[in-house]
From TrEMBL, chain A:
<feature type="transmembrane region" description="Helical">
    <location>
        <begin position="247"/>
        <end position="269"/>
    </location>
</feature>
<feature type="transmembrane region" description="Helical">
    <location>
        <begin position="301"/>
        <end position="324"/>
    </location>
</feature>
<feature type="transmembrane region" description="Helical">
    <location>
        <begin position="219"/>
        <end position="241"/>
    </location>
</feature>
<dbReference type="GO" id="GO:0008137">
    <property type="term" value="F:NADH dehydrogenase (ubiquinone) activity"/>
</dbReference>
<feature type="transmembrane region" description="Helical">
    <location>
        <begin position="424"/>
        <end position="440"/>
    </location>
</feature>
<feature type="transmembrane region" description="Helical">
    <location>
        <begin position="379"/>
        <end position="403"/>
    </location>
</feature>
<dbReference type="Pfam" id="PF00361">
    <property type="entry name" value="Proton_antipo_M"/>
</dbReference>
<keyword id="KW-0472">Membrane</keyword>
<keyword id="KW-0812">Transmembrane</keyword>
Automatic annotation (TrEMBL), chain B:
<feature type="domain" description="NADH:quinone oxidoreductase/Mrp antiporter transmembrane">
    <location>
        <begin position="2"/>
        <end position="81"/>
    </location>
</feature>
<dbReference type="GO" id="GO:0012505">
    <property type="term" value="C:endomembrane system"/>
</dbReference>
<feature type="transmembrane region" description="Helical">
    <location>
        <begin position="41"/>
        <end position="68"/>
    </location>
</feature>
<dbReference type="GO" id="GO:0042773">
    <property type="term" value="P:ATP synthesis coupled electron transport"/>
</dbReference>
<dbReference type="InterPro" id="IPR001750">
    <property type="entry name" value="ND/Mrp_TM"/>
</dbReference>
<dbReference type="GO" id="GO:0008137">
    <property type="term" value="F:NADH dehydrogenase (ubiquinone) activity"/>
</dbReference>
<dbReference type="GO" id="GO:0015990">
    <property type="term" value="P:electron transport coupled proton transport"/>
</dbReference>
<dbReference type="Pfam" id="PF00361">
    <property type="entry name" value="Proton_antipo_M"/>
</dbReference>
<feature type="compositionally biased region" description="Basic and acidic residues">
    <location>
        <begin position="162"/>
        <end position="180"/>
    </location>
</feature>
Length: 476, 180
């Protein structure tokens, strides 16, 4: 397997881990926040380095050149391939902008140490392929939000029940899978266990209540960090796609489509901004799953493009709401707040990220949504139109929230509402990526299409997953 | 004719019907407007409806001529509209009275009740906003409010307490003058 020129993967996993230890010895909250920003920025730089190095290699997969933990792990535990190369910088970016947008006064409530530990676990998760290490990382990554809920003395029952079921199904399914031949029909039952686990983690109806509960009871930052990287979709891509037959995947796509429409409708009846955001995220993440579950090259390309755009745009949308909440507490959507005059930059960013999440032209989400709709209609001509309905409902929810929060009678407040330099920087970075990705989509789309074709080729090599409707033509 | 329209009689009928409905609705709506430019906008809608009927019937060259002629005429009307109103004002000032409008043939034939209904139809834009609100928006929101209520009951049951802290969110926290 080709080697990267520097151990980007391991270093990017270890830096936030050691950073969390470092923060343990800093008692001052303001210094902790500054140091945390530096650590997250360094991690992001490392993941960008990994992406550039990987792209320059021109290979489908690669591992680190030197392995610090070679004595502990097998050489091929942490591998970057075309499917995960963009996800690693995306995860690091999500953590960086969320920490950047944390107000100094809120730093004590938002556990920076747990955030860095979560970042380390998530980067390790996205660097793993199907293996017991991936299963272990998926299980362990459910712990930090639980610890935070306990710290905040909130009821953890809903979270425990759902994550307990997730862990049980995941471990049982993988253990069973290890004992059967993946090219035979014996894989169907353990595959069903793993599928249920992954869909639970992704928040597919009716297993989504843990997500709304986490947004209700946890800190907004932790909830955003735990959900926006779309770990459930990654688990589906690594654990389910290689083994599930096309008929099974396309049947699950119906459930994901239903979830997308259901969550879009639910977002419209919420009276509070966090819950609206949670349902918006559920709807968009379900659309990503739809694309993966269609298992056609166009559908999967759309899903992979949409994954990046949803990660960026909904993170930006979420941190804007979080910035407002940090100043004035939870935002009711029952009346108009008139905050535009006091927060013009954040209001513009809110609109940009909200529209980007639904695939507005000239934003990074446009091409992905277009490909997803085409893929869905190709497989299910009538049901595929539900993708359009879900996107329309999400668009209405975004605009509804925008008008409720930023328009209306202007109320003068003594609280400083303008964006701080760190928030402006986070806004600028995300805006550039959202608009840049929308105006110059070709390089990203071409690489996602190549990755989707490779996924399809891998599925064609397994007799359980071969799809006669979409043969892969091998280049001579 | 367009190959798509040629191959489907159903589609042709749908296109013609939509064009006719648009033309009739546009004609009614333009007559009840109090603003000249909005009235001209609805008049444009009427012409577009007629053009769509022409396309549906397969008269594509007629439709093309109609589009060009309509574009030229409507542009001139829109540009002339402000000065036309000023000319009317000056004329009425000179006459010392309002210029009487001659009633159209339809107004003389149709009963007063139909006039009133047509006025309300045009003024409320074909009752589309009201119909949309009554038959689509409210049932939709009511249905999802029921789902929301069911989810609340389930989460309250599992948590054995009121599970939604967001219910206590103040309506206007920005007026409290206190930092969160």
């Amino acid at each position: 397997m080709p080697e990267l020129r520097f151990p980007w993967i391991e270093v990017s996993i270890l830096v936030p881990m050691f950073g969390a230890l470092w923060l343990h010895f800093i008692s001052n909250a303001e210094r902790s926040l500054r140091h945390c920003v530096v650590i997250c920025a360094a991690t992001f730089a490392l993941t960008v380095g990994e992406l550039i190095d990987f792209v320059s290699l021109g290979a489908f997969e690669a591992h680190d050149h030197w392995l610090f933990l070679d004595w502990l792990f097998n050489r091929d535990i942490f591998v970057v391939d075309e499917l995960s190369s963009y996800q690693l910088p995306l995860v690091a970016l999500i953590f960086l902008v969320t920490v950047l947008a944390t107000l100094r006064t809120k730093a004590p409530r938002f556990s920076l140490k747990l955030a860095l530990v979560s970042e380390s676990l998530m980067l390790a998760t996205f660097s793993c392929r199907e293996s017991w290490t991936l299963i272990l990382l998926l299980v362990v990554s459910t712990i930090p939000p639980y610890l935070e809920l306990r710290q905040r003395e909130r009821c953890t029952r809903i979270y425990r029940i759902h994550m307990g079921a997730f862990v049980a199904l995941l471990v049982t399914g993988w253990a069973w899978m290890s004992m059967v031949d993946v090219h035979s029909s014996a894989v169907l039952v353990p595959g069903a266990f793993l599928t249920t686990a992954c869909l639970l983690r992704a928040g597919i109806f009716p297993l989504h209540l843990w997500m709304t509960d986490l947004f209700e009871k946890g800190t907004f930052g932790t909830a955003i960090l735990f959900t926006t990287p779309l770990v459930g979709a990654y688990a589906v891509m690594r654990l389910i796609l290689p083994i599930a037959p096309s008929w099974a995947m396309q049947s699950i796509a119906i459930l994901s489509l239903f979830t997308a429409v259901y969550a879009g409708g639910m977002a419209l009846v919420q009276r509070e901004a966090r819950r609206m955001f949670c349902y918006l995220l559920l709807s968009q993440s379900s659309l990503v799953l739809v694309g993966l579950e269609l298992v056609t090259p166009i559908g999967m390309t759309g899903a992979l493009c949409l994954w990046v755009s949803v990660g960026m745009s909904l993170t930006g949308f979420g941190i804007t709401l979080r910035c407002i909440e940090a100043r004035i507490s939870r935002i009711s959507l029952a009346d108009f707040h008139g905050l535009y005059q006091q927060m013009p930059i954040l209001s513009g960013f809110f609109l940009l990220t909200g529209l980007a999440s639904i695939g507005f032209p000239a934003t990074v989400g446009f091409v992905g949504m277009e490909l997803l709709i085409e893929g869905a209609v190709d497989v299910y001509p009538l049901v595929g139109s539900m993708v359009v309905i879900a996107a329309a409902l999400n668009g209405i929810a975004v605009l509804f929230a925008y008008f409720r929060i930023f328009t209306g009678r202007h109320n003068r407040t003594l609280i400083p509402m303008h964006a701080r330099p760190a928030e402006k920087f986070a806004v600028l970075v995300l805006s550039l990526l959202i608009l840049g990705g929308g105006l110059y989509p070709q390089p990203g789309v071409a690489s996602r299409y190549h990755a989707a074709k490779e996924l399809t080729r891998q599925r064609q090599s397994n007799p359980m997953t071969v799809d006669p409707k979409h043969p892969v033509h091998h280049e001579k | 004719m367009s190959p798509l329209l040629e191959s489907s009689l159903t589609l042709q009928c749908m296109v013609i019907t939509l064009g006719l409905v648009s033309a009739i609705c546009g004609a009614l709506m333009s007559r009840v407007q109090s603003d000249i430019k909005v009235s001209l906008a609805y008049a444009s809608l009427t012409q577009v409806g007629i053009i769509v009927v022409e396309i549906g019937l397969g008269f594509r060259y007629l439709a093309l001529i109609h589009i060009i002629g309509h574009a030229s005429l409507r542009t001139m009307q829109l540009l002339r509209a402000p000065t036309l109103l000023r000319d009317y004002n000056e004329l009425e000032n000179a006459l010392g009275a309002r210029i009487t409008q001659r009633q159209s043939g339809w107004t003389r034939i149709l009963p007063a009740a139909v006039h009133r209904w047509a006025y309300r139809f045009g003024f409320d834009r074909g009752f589309m906003d009201i119909a949309l609100d009554k038959f689509i928006v409210r049932p939709f929101l009511a249905l999802f409010s029921v789902f929301d209520s069911l989810e609340r009951q389930v989460t309250d049951l599992i948590s054995n307490e009121a599970s939604r802290e967001s219910d206590d969110a103040p309506l206007h926290p920005e007026e409290s003058q206190r930092v969160a």
